[in-house]
Amino acid sequence: MQTDNGAAVDLTNCDREPIHLIGAVQSFGFLLAVSSTNWCVTRASRNVVEWLGVEATDLLGRPLDQILTPDAVHAIRGQLQSAIMGDTVARAFGVVLTGGGLRCDVALHVVHDTVVIEGEPCVDDPAINAGAMVRGMIARLQQTSELRTFYRVAAREMRAITGFDRVMIYRFDHDGSGEVIAESARAGLESYLGLHYPASDIPQQARILYERNWLRIIPDVNAPPAAIEPQLDSDGNALDLSMSILRSVSPVHVEYLKNMGVAASMSVSILRQGKLWGLLACHHYTPHHVSFARRTAAELFGQMFSLLMESRERDNESASEARAQKLHHQLITVMAAEAIQFESIVTHLDDLADLLACDGIGIWINDRATLKGLAPDEAQFAKLIAFLADRNISEIFARHDIGAEYPPGRAFADRAAGMMVVPLSRPARDYLVFFRREIARSVNWAGDPAKPVTSGPQGARLTPRKSFELWRETVRGQSPPWLPVECRIAESLRVSLLEVILRLSDLTETERRRAQERQELLIAELNHRVRNILGLIRGVITQSKDSATDVESFTKVLGGRIHALAMAHDQITADNWGPASFRGLINAEAGAYLADKADRVVINGPDVLIEPQAFTTVALVIHEMITNSAKYGALSDNRGRVEIATALDALGRLTIDWAEHGGPAVKPPTRRGFGSTVIERSIRHDLKGDARVEFAVAGLRASFTIPAAYVRAARGEAEGGAETAAVSSGDSVGMPKDVLVVEDNMIIALDAEDIMRKFGVGTVRTASGVAQALREISDHPPEFALLDVNLGAETSFEIAKRLAEAGVPFVFATGYGEQVAFPPEFSDVRKLRKPYSIDSLREAVERRTDAAEPNRC
Questions:
Q1: What angle in degrees, to the nearest 10, is found between the helix axes of 612-632 and 551-573?
Q2: From CA 207, how far away is CA 200, in angstroms rounded?
Q3: Is the pLDDT higher at 165 or at 721?
Q4: Three-state SS at 320
Q5: pLDDT tens digits, residue range 438-486?
Q6: Which residue in 4, 428, 471, 472 could disulfide with 423, CB within 3.0 to 4.6 Å?
Q7: What residues does 41 pair with on adjacent strands?
Q8: Residue 269: which region, alpha, beta or left (left: phi > 0; alpha: psi -120 to 50)?
Q9: Which helix H or strand E contains 131, and what residues bound it?
Q10: How many angstroms separate the Cα of 324 from the Cα of each of 321, 337, 485, 813?
């Protein structure tokens, strides 16, 4: 049919309804929305006056701390910290919101730059201990052995905790329709067990919301909703209520429930691998409200049930997969030892059929076909293969209804209604196909799923079907569906056949040619590098012999220089011929040549990375400098030392200043050997840099400049560090190595720890109270501390005093804003307002040197 404007009305109309932008909440609670930047109210539900005594329009623009008590605001900010990092709902129970003593259970979530606060009356329920209750429920589930009993016990447990008249486990099929597979209902109610519901009964956008929000409750389908003021913000956008616990109900869904005679409902999502598997659907035939605490326990049970269900199904699949894998490996081992021919595969068709539950099998290789069992005839099979090739089916392709995908397949549906296609070549032209026969089955629908629809009270929108009486449909032309585990078994078989049996396929030949080309390129590059190295060594030998007085000295000098080249080569090849550390070069040379005297070589300044093209040149220069110092300079006795200072100038060039102190008096050399030539000329010649050497009496001095093209700053390196050739003694101004987090809420403390670790903090210690924090400081003072002001019955000011005395920087974290009376000496200390973000916490840690400057009165 059509609407008044000619638009078609069908079951997909519901999919287009923006139920997350409905602009209203259910009346069993109220909603406030505040800006996350200034915490002023931006939206409120009209029924807020019933709870807070103030009209919604009068709340707009007012700061939250002028509406709720300071403790309520603090609780909200603290709980919100656990939700700000993800798409979750935080909860706070029994919060006193107003000075009049209004106690509410509160749900909190974040939508872009808006914090959504939802409250409902706190129900004192001493029987509720969510952890203990759910543990008992799960224990009873775990005692079941069969899946059918497992589902039935889950429905019974959910009904016990929530008090609904009926609880069903509703599982979605591959086509989106659903089936009631378990049920627990009060006496006298008609059973829904085994009934199917069409996919249109739960629109697509509702399924998306079920994946995001685990629980949805409608306590009274007849209760009028409370509109949100204003409906649209200044940009014309409605408030996104996807994560709301109070989100109002679509009129279409209300009518649907009324047609079923349902007055209250609740749904708990069942997820498998993050996707909607089904629902724990609860119905009541009079208005029925479940407290927030009980709903939280029900939601936790639903989450645990999802994990247990997924584990049980996975165990069953794993056992089936293991059996198939055993047969698979045995088969492939036998086939791999045989000739790789069409006849070899045909011989083992029966064995291949055993891998999957099938009724027939067909093989098509090189335009030759063989069929066994229930399958199309050869002419029909050839046309099916042509269809698959035209579609370029190159991956596992499973259908339980061949005729829907390939209409000519209806002619052989009585023999082969479903197929699993396994491509055997690349490009795809050869196939192995498993077939399943038709299973004519009766489906019990709750009403006719294809019953015509009419426009109703919502105008052009769909009126839900009213009839839920049993309607049977006989389904033909379909086989049992192929399960994901069966698709994985088929994929494993496909890979084995391609790699072991059909290894001479076109793609394999192409890959062989590419591998040969890569090998030839590698050999050419290796020849080039080996010739360069041999040329360099020949030059070193030639130049070294001039300064040698005998074979022993020649061998020693030559060995040292070649060793320096080898160490340089090791450093640049350790990271796949990438840039290597200059500081690492100094450490290697000093450690190798000076052994226990290596700590007399001190490096100041940032580390830099030197590109491979320049590294061997710089390595030879450093080797000659270390060697000469050990023979004639500061390192030749037990008192001298060498200081090496590095810096990057404004042009990005690396400057290296070498200064020797405390050694014997320096005399300029009477002759220039190869070593001196390397020091003074190689950087100029090879790198177009600069080198200067001064033979000062107090100690040799040299300076080298490496062009910017050959250097880059080492990642995370800070200026000004000092390091011996063996051990660093410098202080980094980057991230601290040790941080103390003082927070009485474990979840917030863990969040802070995770955040800090993500941006590079080494050790993060946590303390929940004053005494524990003071012990941590006494045992080992941290480099930085994050202090929650309010620690239950204590404050962190005593901790702050101890940190200030120890000179440890710190910041405060608080949910009270400016309302806390800070001691005068801490009035200027930086304060992070909860919930703090990753960026604000990072900034506080990075600026820790000026974070805590207590006033010295």
A1: 140
A2: 11
A3: 165
A4: helix
A5: 876 555 666 666 655 555 554 444 456 655 555 555 567 788 888 888 8
A6: 428
A7: 34
A8: beta
A9: helix 130-142
A10: 5, 20, 10, 57
Question: Do residues 202 and 464 make contact, with C-beta atoms less than 8 angstroms apart?
Answer: no
Q: What is the pLDDT of residues 250-305, one digit of tens each?
A: 888 888 888 888 999 999 999 988 899 999 999 999 999 999 989 999 999 999 99
Q: Is 289 helix (H, G, I), strand (E, B) or coil?
A: coil
For residue 12 the two structure tokens come to 């997909």
Single out the residue of 287, 217, 221 nearest to residue 245, CA to CA: 217
What is residue 586's predicted lDDT score, i.e. its pLDDT? Answer: 85
Highest average pLDDT, of 198-202, 208-212, 638-642, 644-648, comes from 644-648
For the cut 70, the answer to whether the pLDDT of residue 193 exceeds it is: yes
Instruction: State how beta strands 810-814 and 831-833 pair.
Output: parallel
Q: CA-based diameter of the chain, in Å? A: 115
Contact 306, 180 (CB under 8 A): no
Identify the CA nearest to 17 among candidates 247, 204, 179, 146: 204
What does DSSP say about strands 470-475 and 654-661: parallel, antiparallel, or unpaired?
unpaired
Look at residue 546 and tell me whether its pLDDT is greater than 70. no
Strands (E), 714-768: 722-724, 738-742, 763-767
In tens, the pLDDT along 619-654 reads 888 888 888 887 788 888 888 889 999 999 888 899
Cis peptide bond upstream of 427, omega within 30: yes
What CA–CA distance (Å, rounded) separates 453 from 16? 16
* Residue 577: closest CA among 565, 588, 585, 569: 569
Residue from 115, 112, 86 nearest 833 by CA: 115
Q: Which pLDDT score is estimated for 446? A: 62
Pairwise CA distance, residues 211 & 204, whole Å = 11
Q: State how far the Cα of 112 lies from the Cα of 238, in Å rounded to an integer.
A: 13
CB atoms closer than 10 angstroms to residue 121: 14
- If you search the block for the tokens 């079923």, which residue do you land on? 260
Confidence (pLDDT) at 501: 53
Q: Which residue has the higher pLDDT, 790 or 317?
A: 790
* Angle at 426 (CA atoms; ends 425, 429), nearest 5 degrees: 55
Verdict on whether the full-model pTM lies above 0.85? no
8 Å CB contact between 796 and 774:
no
In b/e form, how buried is each residue of 305-336, taking b as 16+ CB within 10 angstroms? bbebbeebeeeebeeebeebbeebeebbeebe
